[in-house]
Design brief:
There is one protein chain. By secondary structure, the protein is an alpha+beta fold. It has two domains: 132 residues, Histidine kinase-like ATPase, C-terminal domain (Heat Shock Protein 90, 2-Layer Sandwich); 186 residues, Phosphatase 2c, domain 1 (4-Layer Sandwich), CATH 3.60.40.10. The two termini are 17 Å apart.
Length: 332
């Protein structure tokens, strides 16, 4: 599934809501969303923006990313804030309000979207995810997702991610072009293209192909994971500072990447093979995510993959770099 860079819109006052709605609807047109889905999208973006202004002292932001494959188009929208948090069960009830309004915001968002998820911690903030799909769209059904947000002030992210569905399982790529901006994005986009063209190769050989292709570009760091659901195995190969972790129940295992730069220096490519089952979770992050991320995920780890990715970004993303999180959970 092809995923766009994320559109990031700060929402701190009422006047920013209508601009956010207009920009996200225009963005959705470019992503191929049909009129019926766009109408629902516009309504829900207004609700989410209004909630950010009313309930979070410093506002928050709305993130939007397009998702396209051969079988359809979709838009995922995230509302993220570092506000006081909320009682999700109460807030989902129509008529419940803490600000003397009609209290239909979250209930309306759920009814008008094709997919809805929410997570909140008191004193830490909230993330709401909604997805809008064209009628008849059939997107990949494994539990995978991610988010790639450009550094503030940049339109393009130098990070790219991709999850490909395979007959035996799936393959994941996270690549971070060196620096940020256009040249970093160009290198990462080329790496993603080579990844999609060579999915038959094992991770080590596929990373070598990307390394050769990136000569003469800005260069990048990256990692690839392939998961065979039937065999219950995950194979991982990384070069440079991409964080890879495998979670299983209360344990976590760091997946090793060697030092080097794709397109410049790669002294060694090493594959790591670990067990995978229905309770496993893979998280991959670029260095735009703080290294403190994995000390505590708590109940957030039980939410959907894309919502968890947005939660990690909201709480641990750096403002000095592009930030990307890719998550894959055990087969649904």
């Amino acid at each position: 599934m092809d995923v766009t860079d994320t559109l990031r819109l700060d929402i701190c006052e009422q006047s920013q809501i209508s601009d956010a709605r207009r920009r996200i609807v225009n963005f959705s047109i470019d992503c191929g969303l049909d009129q019926e889905a766009r109408d629902r999208l516009a309504l829900v973006v207004t609700e989410l923006g209004t909630n950010l202004v009313k309930h979070s002292q410093n506002g928050g932001r709305i993130l939007a990313q397009g998702m396209v494959n051969a079988n359809g188009s979709a838009i995922e929208v995230f509302s993220v804030d570092r506000g006081p948090g909320m009682n999700v069960g109460q807030c989902m009830l129509d008529g419940f309000s803490t600000t003397e309004t009609f209290g239909n915001g979250l209930g309306s968002a759920k009814r008008n979207s094709n997919d809805f998820d929410v997570y909140s911690e008191i004193g830490k903030g909230s993330v709401i995810k909604v997805r809008f799909e064209n009628k008849g769209s059939k997107l990949d059904k494994f539990e995978g997702g991610g988010i790639s947000v450009p550094m503030p002030g940049e339109l393009l992210s130098g990070d790219k991610w991709f999850i490909a569905s395979l007959p035996e399982g799936c393959a994941c790529l996270l690549v971070d072009g060196l620096g940020h901006g256009f040249e970093a994005s160009e290198a990462a986009t080329l790496a993603r293209k080579r990844f999609k063209e060579n999915l038959n190769l094992p991770p080590k050989e596929l990373l070598k192909v990307i390394h050769t292709s990136l000569r003469g570009t800005r260069g990048a760091v990256g990692a690839i994971a392939k998961i065979d659901f039937a065999k219950g195995k995950l194979t991982y190969c990384g070069l440079g500072n991409i964080t890879g972790l495998l979670f299983f129940n209360d344990t976590k295992k760091y997946l090793t990447s060697f030092n080097g730069t794709l397109g410049y220096e790669a002294r060694k490519f090493l594959e790591v093979e670990v067990d995978w089952n229905a309770d496993s979770m893979l998280i991959m992050c670029s260095d735009g995510i703080s290294s403190t991320t994995f000390r505590e995920l708590g109940e957030a780890s039980h939410r959907s993959a894309s919502l968890l990715a947005a939660w990690i970004y909201s709480n641990y993303g750096k403002s000095t770099d592009d930030a990307t999180v890719l998550i894959l959970k055990g087969r649904v």
